[in-house]
Structure formats: structure tokens, C-alpha cells
Amino acid sequence: MQVEDLEVILKVAEFRSITAAAESLDMRVATASAAIKRVEKQLGAELFIRTTRQLRLSAAGERYIPSCQEAVAMLAQAHQHVKEELAVIDGELRLALSSDLGRNIVVPWLDEFLTMHPSVKLKINLSDSNIDFYRDAVDIALRYGSPTDSNLYGFKICDVPGLLCATEEYLSEFGAPKHPQELVRHNGLFYHLYDVIHDVWTFSKDGESFKIKMHGNRASNDGDLVRRWCVSGKGLAVKSSLDMSNDLVDKRVVPVMNDYQARKTELWLVCPSRQSITPAVRLLRDFIKMKCHDVFEQLINGGILPK
User: Fold this and answer.
1) 219, 190 Cβ separation under 8 angstroms
2) What digits encode the pLDDT tens for the residues 135-158?
3) Which of 80, 115, 117, 142 has the fewest CB atoms within 10 Å around its CB?
4) How far is residue 35's CA from residue 182's CA, in Å, rounded to a whole number?
5) Angle at which helices 29-43 and 3-15 cross, to 10°
6) Rounded Cα gap, residues 161 and 74, in angstroms
7) pTM of this prediction?
């Protein structure tokens, strides 16, 4: 009995759909159906009851699935242990990245990573929307903010300061704000997700917090577009210093109101299970940590971030 066939069985049981299972596994529906038939033939029992409207587990299927899950998990763990002992770095990394961080910062790092480890394959899901690890067929996600789901496994990569940014041209025309209260006279560039516009900006100084309700003529659910608006001089934006690092170093934008700290966040590499933490994932985690450290060192040495 092939392990690949068992993985199909588990996906069909999870989705209650052969079509959805096939899409999740990147295979044809006919291939998934053939896998089910092979397993059922070897077992001498039908695992699924199929009707024109639905698919559900049979009594035999209800008994078989838990044992099948345990067997597949044990085999995957055995493979991982052997690879760890042999220091084998291979396999496919199915990685979810946010739009701006992924496209402009991390993807070039990943090109370097693949050059260093040619046996690794990469599949990227690029989106600012929340990731469903099972629906979106993703193994790991690099995301801002610590994971809120206790069932997930995460590695903290680094702390990421936020910065208020604008171009020199914009500041020359409209003036450089010195205090958060002066921001109300400026054009804000906003990020929005799930119909929530992030137009209340928070700053802190010496233990005092300032909340400013901003006004602006541009908002997008794509963080990369907000960055591009900022770089083209359309207004002020509060962005991750990591997202803006290339623009800051090349002086396409400058930090504004340095005495006031914009919101901070954390960068995490998140996995849905321990089985997802392969040697390649651990190596990628350490590689991204090193790259982030290098970026922040450059920003500190350039006087953009405080020491």
C-alpha cells in the first residue's frame, strides 16, 4: 500500500470531497479516485459512501481513518529523523508570505537560499489575507504578530519597529510634523483588511501614548501598494521598518518624527504541526533570522534606527 494513496484517503476524509482533496494535493481528480480504489481493493472494504450530493465515511472508514492518520504520522516522523541524522536538506517548502515583506524583501533572500540548497523546492503563497494551512496547502507562514492559535507552532524571528515614513519632496511641500497632533493636517496612506481601515495611528514617548485619527485619500488591502504610494510622495505611512528598509537605505523615503515610537510588532515563522518542522524549515528559520539581523544592523549603522 503506497503512502501517497493513504495521504489521499486522509485528505478526502478531511474535506469530504474527492475534488477538494485533489486540489489540495495538486493532483487530478481521476488520480485521487484511483488511489481510493486501490486502498479499498486491498482492504476489501469501502471507506466512503458516495451519493450524488455528498460523500461520507462508511463504518469501515470510521474505524480505519484514525489508524491511517497514526501510521502516516509515524512514517513521516521516521523519515524526518533519518534526514536529521544525515543532515539532508531537501523537500518542498510551501511558504506563505505577506505582500510587501514577501515580494520586496524575503523573495530575494529565498533565491539565495535555493542557490545554497539546490535540492529544496519552493512554492510561495503571496497574500496579506489570513492563511488557512489546510485549505491553502501551506506548510509554513512568515507573518507579523505572534500566533494566537495555541494549536500552531511558531518561531519568533525578531522584533520589528514601526516607522512613520515620507519622501523629502512631500515634507518639503507640506512640512515635517514634529508632534503627533500635527499629523491631522497631513495625508495618511492606509492599510485595510477585512473592511477595517487602519487609520488610527499610535505613537509613544517617555511612557506617554498618543492616538491620532488620521485622514487620507488612499487605502489598500495590499501592503506593497501602500509602500509604493509612500515612495511616490502621496503622503505619510506607518510601516514596518523591515518592509521599508530598502527605501530607507536608498533614501527614497526618510523616517519622520524620530522622537516618537510608532507601533512595534514581531515577525514569526509559523507551522501547523511539529511534523511541518523539517530540517529545511529549521535551516530557513535560521537563515531568515540572520538576514533580518543584517538589515537592522544596516538601519542602525545608517542612523535610521536607534541602537
Assistant:
1) yes
2) 777 889 999 988 877 778 889 999
3) 115
4) 65
5) 110
6) 41
7) 0.70
